[in-house]
Structure to design on (293 residues):
């Protein structure tokens, strides 16, 4: 995956999607980036940055490119303009996260999470970030085995930011969270039993929140495609807003904005949830594991 930062530029989910649409339109028109640049009185480098989602798109530039590429349908042009508008707004968004040292892809994710009204999380390897205790986070970021999960942020700053994110679950109105956790995650805690007890207790308490739906995917449910990696599906209140999917695998991330691909992730989540223990059974399972420590 391309890095979300390049110099002083930032590549966003919506920016990359808009850039991808423009690339397809340019290719279909049989034009290259140099020709597109001439239409904008801009360099080829600028066009490349636009198509990579590295810079926000101005409406005049977008209209000029649509004219060059032969896109005259008002609906199609309007959809691209709206995508560009929302992208510009998200790039300018400021919030509590600006007080913390949050970098790279996580900064983009938190910006989206702060605007979301509902999130579905499937996690086969770790406790979801919105449900992690400080002890769990510290243990996860300590030692060679945690290097994959450890980022450039100082530990205490990272923990404080994570706790700030969790406040949304009890806000008015709260962020709605549906989380499904693989049983293996609950039997392989970083830090061992010293971490496990408090995290299991916290999960049981969080499951009582009206905004949280927690299920456990047991070993007995068998294999399914989601075991390849975790993913979060973020939904928004704005009319016509598309779901955004953030999927992770070792050393790679993937963003999906709306369309059939996002719908496929939603179908996968529903299948995983359907095969999982019920909410009541999941809490009972947490208590059972706690007693076994």
């Amino acid at each position: 995956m391309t890095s979300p930062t390049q110099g002083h530029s930032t590549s966003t989910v919506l920016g990359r999607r808009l850039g991808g649409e423009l690339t397809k339109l340019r290719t279909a028109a049989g034009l290259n980036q140099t020709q597109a640049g001439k239409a904008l009185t801009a360099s080829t480098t600028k066009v490349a940055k636009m198509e990579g989602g590295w810079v926000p798109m101005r409406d005049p530039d977008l209209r000029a490119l649509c004219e060059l590429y032969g896109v005259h349908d008002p609906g199609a042009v309007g959809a691209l303009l709206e995508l560009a508008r929302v992208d510009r707004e998200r790039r300018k968004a400021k919030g509590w996260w600006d007080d913390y040292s949050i970098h790279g892809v996580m900064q983009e994710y938190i910006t989206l999470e702060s605007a979301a009204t509902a999130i579905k999380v499937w996690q086969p390897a770790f406790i979801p970030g919105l449900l992690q205790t400080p002890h769990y986070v510290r243990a996860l970021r300590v030692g060679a085995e945690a290097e994959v999960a450890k980022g450039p942020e100082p530990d205490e700053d990272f923990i404080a930011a994570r706790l700030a994110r969790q406040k949304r679950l009890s806000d008015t109105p709260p962020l709605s969270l549906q989380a499904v956790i693989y049983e293996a995650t609950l039997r392989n805690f970083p830090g061992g039993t010293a971490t496990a007890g408090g995290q299991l207790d916290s999960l049981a308490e969080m499951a009582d929140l009206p905004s949280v739906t927690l299920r456990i995917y047991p070993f007995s449910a068998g294999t399914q495609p989601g075991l390849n990696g975790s993913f979060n599906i973020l939904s928004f209140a704005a009319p016509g807003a598309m779901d955004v999917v953030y999927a992770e695998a070792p050393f790679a991330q993937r963003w999906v904005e709306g369309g059939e691909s996002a719908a496929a992730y939603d179908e996968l989540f529903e299948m995983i949830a359907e095969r999982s223990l019920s909410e009541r059974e999941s809490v009972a399972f947490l208590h059972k594991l706690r007693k076994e420590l």
